[in-house]
Design a protein that fits this description.
The structure is a homodimer of 535-residue chains. With 535 residues, the first copy, chain A, is of the alpha/beta class. In chain A, 38% of the residues lie in helices and 20% in strands. In chain A, strands 15-16-17-14-13-18-19 form a 7-stranded mixed beta sheet, with helices on both faces. A 5-stranded mixed beta sheet of chain A has the order 20-7-6-21-22, with no helix packed on it. In chain A, a hairpin with a 4-residue loop joins strand 6 (134-137) and strand 7 (142-148). Chain A is globular and about 75 Å long.
Chain lengths: 535, 535
């Protein structure tokens, strides 16, 4: 994010339904990860004034959205998805230029369809309404549901320019589905992509008649303004996906004033391959994990950063197979200069802490943001001596093999791990690992949001049963997920109870008549799609 | 809580299934609020060692509880409720002596049955299992539910010696129902009551074969040890009911290390009486609110601390009626010396900030912890000039009338209020207030957890539809409630997802077969009490 202080034409920010000149403290340009060269126009780093204007507009939009028809929210989300499809070529080309992710299949066949799919799932959930978790107690005439919380700020990460973008991704879709306006803080590594997305979001807002400030976007902020934004009285809640350092700063600011903040931060996503599985199908698993580790240059939130094995000849073959696969695969550019620098620093620190380089371990020559596909290795005993330094996420195309002496030691290692999004256990199909599985699984279970069997963690299905969350510090709270409609929507809701409120004044979802005949409601202890009996 | 440093026999703490000598830094005795005299034996202020031992024991207990039969948890909760009933006379007598709350009806006919009722509702929820919110995606074979989070620390308040007691109340019941061990921090204003409760809890643990350290209790702690307790790595989550000052300190400590903490803190519970309701039935409402304000000497979490009226002759009559009722009712002792001092200080500060004393406003002579039933009054304009000082909870038998110039000003006042547990709106049955209601209700709705019509907020029904929560600073998060099974249980759970996990390794709740035929589960998008189809 090279800064330019001089006066020049700059892209505009989206505030209150208009693309406006930013109150800018400076500007920056995107960089092509393949060349390291600045590309595209200059984008503003907003001063606080832009946040202030956006917060005022969002506050007004939220008032207008009160009691809005669920159908209208659904229509917006669907229109937005359709708009993205119409503009797919331009979006994919822009994202490819700013991120160096492959246009095909990754951006056009995988990530964009996933993004439009999320928007449509959110639309369906908003229309159907069950996410509100309506509970009706007819005897006491007390009725409760989850209701929109107010203006939501979403900070998008660098690694999914569409699917986690602050103006289009999962947090955005969930916050809107709940009925909230969103102020997106775009990630500065793909500002052009964010601009194109925001243009389509704004178009959809106009096409479907939502308040103009339902979607707003700024590109970059000084750190202190980010802290101010999440803790401003007008902000109701924040969604953040990104680095631990940034997330924890924002968390502290939001916590101090009691504002909900949902964070998805770092995760090393341990994978444990039990001894008999190594014997039975070590080579297959090694190839599968190598693919998983290098997917998107290892810049997936659930990329396996730690492979935990137990000493044996098969474990050595496993490492050799993974090493060959890492060496055979060309390294892909990382998403940003900062990402390259961070990976390089992390690997150096891990080596400094005692990890050995099996392959890779250095930046590639040239201007591209490329780092060698890297495997590090450390013994279980060494890991246990310094988990606080060796349990570090090296975000990118690097992973660390931890070679435990035996399953006992492997279990100890798991018991010393911090919270993670995922943990995977490979065990023999023969059942020969079952006793070891039964010892390892509870320890791993306690430390992860999603426990996998015999499967790499990098596929995050957009399923109602998905948990893309986990214990701290992988997120800020182990009871929420950022992927998985409808549960993800709850993050951006407050629990609204109505006690003895006159029937006609109740929100439609809480009235005796089921508002759409599809919403599941808990009425006197039973789930039903019907009306309150006798009504 | 008078401290005694000399060596003498002291009550024991409940750790790891035994009543043990405390590692005490000092001791304290309860005080009779009617006489101000110390009563009963000396109780220990625990040093950190006691917390450390309790945390280790809870950690082991939690391991044993893994995969426990739901029935066993339910049996414990029911046995405990039954034990309390058998020992009702002793419990009521002890609580009456320590709190001066009436033995009858309050303690024996209301609060104890409520407490046993909560335990039985929690038992039913644990047994039935729907609280786990099971979501099964058969196509992807991903399955998720809420699972126990780990050792839970519960800090009980002074105002409900049974129903919110750390070792017997709502947070305790919810944490146990989820499958967690509890470390209770009893409130030092009723240590004998807490001891009797804990004895019955321990008996029930033994009767039903739960791990001995499922329930543990200490009486008092230095502030710094409380902070250490909620942020210890072995603590999974904390429930706290009490003062803002204490709650916010604990919140900061827990937040800093990403530990969930659920707080119920102060709330002024505004009641708005609209103009036509004042005309139509002002006197009735005034009497109803006076009763609500003085219930339990005004020491209910939902006691109305602010009555918002609009200027009119009827409003003056309303104040006169409330004043007569406050003056006619004998003042009851407050729960503790500290509570008396706090109320006295708060009233003085409110008067210092411009509130006028309508009646009361001073401590009563004598040794009892009695304060005059007190009504303060301030104009809407004055309130709007200093909401930060006038929006103060004077916990106890004091309330403040805010007299707004008109409904516009009343609305402004509501818009300047902080988060509260409840907000009540009285409007005319004739419909003459409806336009004003429609303006006021959204503003109030945004600031409270429970919105009431034509009803005082002090009745908190233990209903699945109850929300005993609200926006910050009344609690720490607007999406959770501390009363209302099963929703209250979610606070003490983490979201556990199983991805491709082999069928026999899944928790019973997630297996194809519905484990008890009563648990509601969302299977491929539909709620069902059946098995997964085809299984």
């Amino acid at each position: 994010m090279p800064m330019h202080k001089e006066e020049r034409a700059m892209e505009k920010v989206l505030i209150a339904g208009e693309w406006r000149e930013a109150h800018a403290s400076g500007g920056f340009r995107a960089e092509d990860p393949k060349t390291g060269q600045a590309i595209g126009p200059e984008y503003p780093v907003s001063r606080w004034e832009d946040c202030d204007l956006a917060l005022n507009a969002a506050t007004e939009a939220f008032k207008e959205m009160r009691g809005i028809e669920l159908e209208k929210i659904a229509a917006f989300l669907e229109q937005y998805a359709a708009n993205l499809e119409v503009n797919a070529d331009a979006l994919v080309a822009m994202a490819a230029s700013e991120t160096a992710l492959p246009a095909s299949p990754r951006l056009s066949q995988v990530e964009l369809p996933r993004t439009t799919g999320q928007l449509r799932q959110a639309a369906a959930a908003a229309r159907e309404g069950s996410w509100q978790n309506v509970v009706i107690d007819t005897k006491n005439n007390i009725r409760t549901h989850f209701a929109p919380i107010g203006p939501v700020v979403v900070f998008g990460p660098n690694n999914f320019p569409f699917a986690f973008n602050g103006i289009a991704g999962g947090d955005f879709a969930a916050a809107i589905a709940a009925g909230n306006p969103v102020i997106a803080k775009a990630h500065p590594s793909h500002p052009g992509t964010s601009r194109l997305l925001a243009e389509q979001a704004l178009a959809a807002v106009k096409q479907t008649g939502l308040p103009a400030a339902t979607v707003q976007m700024i590109y970059a902020l000084a750190n202190e303004d980010g802290l101010r934004l999440v803790s401003d009285p007008r902000t109701a809640a924040t969604g953040f996906t990104g680095s631990s350092a940034g997330g924890l700063r924002l968390k502290a600011a939001a916590d101090a004033v009691g504002k909900p903040i949902y964070l998805e931060m770092s995760s090393i996503n341990p994978v444990v391959v039990l001894p008999a599985a190594l014997q039975e199908r070590g080579e297959t698993i090694a190839r599968e994990l190598a693919t998983s580790c290098l997917m998107g240059s290892g810049q997936f939130c659930t990329s396996p950063n730690m492979i935990l094995l137990t000493q044996s000849p098969e474990a050595e073959s496993f490492v050799a197979t993974m090493t060959s696969a890492f060496e055979a695969a060309p390294s892909q550019p990382l998403l940003s200069r900062g990402g390259l620098e961070h990976l390089s620093k992390c690997v150096d620190e891990l080596v400094g802490a005692g990890a050995k380089v099996v392959t890779g371990g250095k930046r590639e020559p040239g201007a591209a943001f490329c780092y060698d596909n890297t495997i590090l290795r450390v013994s279980g005993a060494d890991w246990l001596e310094a988990p606080e330094t060796l349990e570090k996420e090296a975000f990118g195309n690097a992973t660390m093999v931890v070679m435990a002496k035996n399953v006992d030691e492997a279990q100890q290692i798991v018991e010393h791990m911090e919270g993670n999004l995922t943990g995977a256990l490979y065990s023999a199909n023969s059942g020969a690992d079952d006793a070891d599985y039964d010892r390892m699984a509870p320890a791993l279970r306690a430390r992860v949001g999603r426990l996998l069997n015999d499967k790499a963690p990098t596929g995050v299905a957009v399923s109602p049963a998905m948990n893309h969350g986990g214990p701290y510090p992988s997120t800020g709270h182990p009871g929420f997920t950022s992927v998985g409609i409808p549960v993800a929507i709850h993050r951006f809701a407050k629990l609204d109870c109505y006690d003895n409120v006159r029937a006609h004044r109740l929100p439609k979802a809480l009235q005796d008549k089921n508002p759409n005949g599809t919403m599941w409601r808990s009425i006197d202890g039973s789930w039903s799609r019907g009306d309150v009996a006798g009504s």
